[in-house]
Amino acid sequence: MSAPGNFAIPERGPGIWQPKIQGIVCNWCSYAGADLAGGGRIQYPPDVRIVRVMCTGRIDALFVLKAFADGADGVLVSGCHFGDCHYLEGNYKAAKRMFMVKRLMKSIGLDDRRFRMTFVSASEGAKWGAVITDVVSTVRELGPSPITEFKQQ
Amino acid sequence: MAEKKKATPKKTETKKDTKKEAPVKEVKKQAPAPEAQAAAPAAADSTTKQDARIGVFICHCGTNIAGSMDIEAVQDYAKTLPNVAYVDNYKYMCSMPGQSVINKAVHDNKLTGVVVAACSPRLHEPTFRTATKESGLNPFRFEMANIREQNSWVHMHDREGSTDKAKDAVRIAVAKAALLQDLFPKTVPVEKAAMVVGAGVAGMQAALDLASAGIKTYLIESDMSIGGRMSQLDKTFPTLDCSQCILTPKMVDVGRSDMIELMTWSEVHEVEGYIGNFDVTVRKKARGVLTPKEAEARGIVGGGCNGCGDCEAVCPVVKPNEFEIGMKPRKAIYINHPQVVPLLYTIDFNSCIKCGLCVTACGPEKRAVDLESKDEFVKVKVGTAILATGYDIFPIEKKEEWGYKKFENVITSLEFERLICASGPTGGHLVRPSDGQTPKRVAFVLCAGSRDNTGTGKPYCSRFCCMYSLKHAHQIIEKIPGCTPYLFYMDIRSFGKMYEEFYYRIQDEGAKFIRGRVANILEDKVTKNLHVHTDDTLLDRPVDMEVDMVVLAAAVQPSADTNRTRKLFGVSCSMDGWLLEAHPKLNPCGTTTAGVFLAGVCQGPKDIPDTVASAEGAASAASIPIHKGEVELEPYFATCIEEKCAGCGMCVNLCPYSALSLVEKNGRQVMQVTEAKCKGCGTCGGFCPGGAIWMNHFSTPQIVAQIDAFLLGGEQ
Fold it and tell me: How far apart are CA A130 and CA B39, in angstroms?
């Protein structure tokens, strides 16, 4: 069965892997944009779980790494567009940190496509839907996180 | 790396004690770190289990939520979660009976925290916080799981997926709820003054209302006169009162009010502070002319500009008058039109040649002209602010097919307003710009640039163009016997009170309506007449109509300075650039920045009645905190865990509000937070290499508990 929107509802069941994706988003732009997507009934896959913070500036690089250590298959950080931060410049600082995380991931052999930082404003409901759809399909292509597999061994 | 965070909550405990804000009994709950042993998170969880008793309440929201997921499955699952002492569901949790379910459950089950799985916290967090408070808990012992906007509404065809997601959302919320602390909002006094940015009809109405409510109001206008777009209009639909007759008395009232400090030719330069205490720096642009007050301050008694106009008469520089959209000349020292408020001349320093003739003409008594004047910066303190920055006309020449600026007889509706206005450049005689003849056939192109999905124009409806075009048609029929207006329309949107009746009236008066979007307009090179090409979709045949003049009902867009101003006040905008309200239905005048409100078209296209209504709404909303005298600030501020602080000072530079500083305590440097300045973004907390900063309500243990709950707590 396929749903309206650019994705199909995947097969589920015991033993079938489903991606676990941790989203950490800011209250003012991306969370509001996600709410707007809801208001517009924009359909997207349900595999991302959101934790809300006031600003992406709050996001410690360790939160992202903790999520990966816990076995997340992907992490999405989303905030305001540059220049639009509710707290002036938190997103700039977050972006710098997140680049560092990406570099770190590369150097420890974790595909950095599993981690993404996006900028979705409070008015971009449709973009939020597109971002989630894309993040989920990317992570599905990459498959389960090697960290989970490593743990099982 | 995770080691660093382990001790965080413990330290906070001690910190909290000294902070006198968290009562001692709460500290116990905070003490056990949830992620204390990364290897054994379950063990850490069990320690919190002893104390935290969470109630989970799942909302059906009618069928909004219940229609897309299995509420019962979510409820059964919630019962298995650690720390959950009570689970219930209700059709509408936000309703009175729903809230009393929470109240009763808290009492009966001695709950320490409340989780409501319902809509977005951006909608109903305040509602449920109040409910939590009324049941005797601290309002910050509440956490919301969003299972509507970010679940049932976006996974409508995936029942299994949305049920699983809801289970996770509840689990994540419970994990955070178990670690929530009592928080106490700070109350701060509110400055008994307000600011209104933009003095069009919205800004003036808002300022007048605030002033009548006894609030000192600073009205900032970037142009030389107040009045805005409305002062350029001739008549207003559907009553056909003349715009000036209803506007100028208001302008005079604004100019006369003791409570309104009018600052024209001024812009907001910088904004600091927060609700109740905004420090706004206003840039008074160099005007070159002194008001009587300013003159007196310089010791010129009885001097200053009295609007006599002697200077204008002698000025040798001639420029197009922007107020008349370039259809009338002005001098380098000028006023827009004779009714300006304040009646004060202004020098356009971009074109002034500083010949000094105006200085001589003004005379030694008044000495009002000062060719050396510079920009001045004035600081004012206000409690709340209203943005009423209005609109500009979309540059319709971008739609090349209609030939604006290419063909002389294609004009915009705003130019039409000036041409038909008795005080306009032609004294109210509508003439063709090419030859000055009176037109006999005038075509109106509606939705010019509005409802345009080609990417060139604007996708939205500009809302008032249909109505003013009907009014223009009426004015033509009334003023020019034998002249026929042709309206090329897509739909006539006559949505307001007495508007549809007005539409019928114009039809009866003999205006011709042709339903079809105009494909292109071509000019007859000899006669300068225009050929309007379209497809009449009612008669299903192509149209090529020769007319004398075309009026484009151009779309509107946010005024040029809106983007700069909104950023100063921290207000978001929609994709079209219109300023974003806090909630389109429940809070249309508010913004996400507390204490900043919106009035008029800057929020989205509005006609005059709607603009005035929204201005009155914004004024009322802006006066509430001022009359109350104090506001509560969300207690999300940062605190320093001094034992862990190494005094490196890296956070000090990160803080966008300069709320952090290094102080000497017990012989070493530690960071200190000025709580009144901290807005709780957490940029410092996200960076601190020692994990020494505790963010209230978004603390590291709480966030890590949420991440762990999602990724590790799946299979209970």
Answer: 36
At B334, the amino acid letter reads Y
Q: What pLDDT digit, counting tens, does each position of A62-121 carry?
A: 999 999 999 999 999 999 998 888 888 899 999 999 999 999 999 999 999 999 999 999
Å from B646 to nearest chain A CA? 18
Give kind and range of the element (H or E) at residue B282.
strand B277-284
Which residues in B lie closer than 8 A to residue A69 (C-beta atoms)? 2, 38
Report how far residue B570's alpha carbon sits from residue B567's, in angstroms, rounded to the nearest whole number: 5
B483 touches chain A (CB under 8 A): no
DSSP code string of B641-698 = -TTT-----HHHHH-TT--EEEEEETTEEEEEE-TTT-----HHHHH-TT--EEETTS
Adjacent-strand bridge partners of B282: B268, B378
pLDDT value, residue B32: 39
What is the model's pLDDT at position B274? 87
Q: Which residues of B touch A77 (CB under 8 A)?
A: none
Instruction: Provide the chain B residues 116-155 that lie in CB contact (below 8 A) with chain A.
Output: 120-123, 146, 148-151, 153-155
**Residues B345/B333, Cβ–Cβ less than 8 Å:** yes
Nearest chain A residue to B701, by CA: A63
Chain B residues 657-676 with a CB less than 8 Å from chain A: 657
Cβ-based neighbours of A17, under 8 Å, separated by 6 or more: A143, A144
A138: CB partners within 8 A, 6+ apart: A74, A113, A114, A116
Q: Concatenated DSSP letters for A27-66?
A: TTTHHHHHHHHHHTT----S-EEEEEES-GGG--HHHHHH
B604 — contact with chain A (CB < 8 Å)? no
Q: Do A38 and B154 touch (CB under 8 A)?
A: yes
Q: Tell me which residue of B445, B549, B544 sits closest to B490, measured CA to CA.
A: B445
B714 falls in which pLDDT band (50, 70, 90)? low
The mean of the pLDDT values for chain B is 90
Residue of B567, B679, B707 with shortest CB distance to A22: B707
- In this structure, what are the phi and psi dihedrals at residue B58, rounded to the nearest 5 degrees? -110, 130
Subunit contact B592:A67, Cβ cutoff 8 A: no
- Does B706 contact chain A (CB < 8 Å)? yes
Chain B CB contacts of A65 under 8 Å are: 1
Whether omega before B32 lies within 30 degrees of 0, making that bond cis, reads no
DSSP one-letter string for B203-233 = HHHHHHHHHHTT-EEEEE-SSSSS-GGGGG-
CA B283 to chain centre: 21
Of the candidates B103, B85, B93, the residue with the CA atom closest to the CA atom of residue B148: B93
Q: Which two tokens stand for residue B676?
A: 């009144």
**Is the overall model pTM greater than 0.80, yes or no?**
yes
* Gyration radius of chain A over CA positions: 15
> What are the chain A neighbours of B592 within 8 Å (beta carbons)?
28, 32, 86, 122
Q: Are B226 and B332 in contact (CB under 8 A)?
A: no
Cross-chain Cβ contact A57/B682 below 8 Å: yes
What are the residues facing B386 on neighbouring strands? Answer: B196, B597
What is the pLDDT at residue B597? 97
Using a CB-CB distance cutoff of 8 angstroms, which residues of chain A are in contact with residue B708?
A: 66, 70
Q: Is the pLDDT of residue B533 over 50?
A: yes
For B372-430, write each residue's pLDDT tens digit: 999 999 999 999 999 999 999 999 999 999 999 999 999 999 999 999 999 999 999 99
CB contact under 8 A, A49 and B593: no
CB distance B711–A52 less than 8 Å? Answer: no
ipTM exceeding cut-off 0.90 for this assembly: yes
Backbone angles phi, psi at B169, to 5 degrees: -60, -40
Query: Nearest CA to B518 among B589, B582, B564, B451?
Result: B451
Query: Which chain B residues have a beta carbon less than 8 Å from that of A83?
Result: 567
Shortest CA gap A118–chain B (Å): 17
